[in-house]
Amino acid sequence: MLFALLLAAAIAPEPVPTLSPTQLLARIRAQFRSHRPPPAYESYTLERKQLRNDGYPDVTGSYIFHVWVRNSDRAALKRQVFRDDYEYPPAFDRPAFNEARDPGPPTADVFEPRPVKPHPISDAYTPEPGVTEGPIIGRVQSLIEYDYRVTRVAYEGDLVHLTLAPISDPERNRLRELYADKTTYELKKLIAADRLFVSGGYKDDYADEFTITMGMVDGVPVVTRIHGVAGADAQGLEYQDDGKVVDFFFRDIAFPARLPDWYFNPRQYGGHLNDLPQ
Q1: Which of these, 31, 98, 156, 199, could form a disulfide with 185 (CB 3.0-4.6 Å)?
Q2: What are the φ/ψ torsions at residue 268 (nearest 5 degrees)?
C-alpha cells in the first residue's frame, strides 16, 4: 500500500501555476499576436447594416463593399456593390479600426490603441509604437500591461471573461471586456467603447458600445462581426429614439498569395478598367 502511494506521488503531474489577472491579459494578448504578422494580402466582403432611430433599415447607412488589402501598408482597392451585383468604379482606401472610416481589415490588431493623429488615406500607413513583449520565464510570460487594469475575472463555461479599465487615456484605449478560450487563450469576443462613424466623420454625441466577434480563417484570427449600439440609453435595446444600431459583417475572407501592384495605386485604375476584380 505504501509503495502504491509513493508511486502515485512520483508520477503525479506538477500543479499548473495560477495566472494573475494581469498575466491572463498578457497571455491572451500574446496568443493573439503569436499569429502575427498577418498574411501579405487579404480580400473580403464588408457589409454594413444600420437601423434608423425608429428601428427601420437605414438605406443610406447600409452598403456592401468588396475589398482587397495589402497589409504591408494597409493600401486597399474597394468596389461598392449595388443592386443586381452591379459594382461601382474602384476606389482607394486604407481600412482601419479606431478611425473615422469603415473598420478593417479583418486581421487588424484589435489591441491597437486609437492613433494619436488619424492616418490620411493618401499617406503610407505608419503603425503606432507599442510595448515590446518581455521574455518568457518558465510557463508564465513576464509582460507588463501598461494600458489596462483588469478589474474582474470570471470563468463562464469554456471562456475566461476579463473586465478592463484603461489605466490612462480612455479615448485611445477603448477595450472594456475580453472573452477568450480558458485553455488556449484564443480571443473569441471583445467589447469596446467607441464612437459611431457616419458619413463625414464621427458622431460625437453618441455614447457607443461595440461587440466584436472573432473567428479563425486558415489559422489566422479575424474579426467576423462588429455590433454597435449607439446612444446614451442603448444598453440592451435593439434600437432607441436617440441613437442607432449598426452591424458590420466581414465575409468571404481569403488570403490570396499575390495581388497585382496596380490594385494599390489609384492612378493606374483608369488603365485597368477591364481588369477590375469582382
Answers
A1: 31
A2: -100, 0
Cell numbers 478593417 correspond to 104
| Burial class (CB within 10 angstroms; exposed 0-12, middle 13-18, buried 19+) of 186 | middle
Find the farthest-apart pair of alpha carbons in the chain and give their distance in angstroms, rounded.
85
The one-character DSSP state at 169 is: -
Q: Which helix (H) or strand (E) holds 245?
A: strand 244-254
What's the number of CA atoms in the CB half-sphere (13 Å) around residue 16? 3
Amino acid sitting at position 127: P
Cell of 212: 466584436
pTM, rounded to two decimals: 0.81
Q: Vertex 127, ends 46 and 140: CA angle to 5°?
A: 95
- DSSP state letters, 110-131: TTPPPPSSPPPTTSPP-PPP-P
One-letter identity of residue 250 = F
Per residue in 8-55, pLDDT (tens digit) is 555 555 545 588 999 999 999 999 999 999 999 999 999 999 877 777
Instruction: List, in sequence order, every residue forming a beta bridge with 51; answer none if it has no partner.
Output: 57, 245
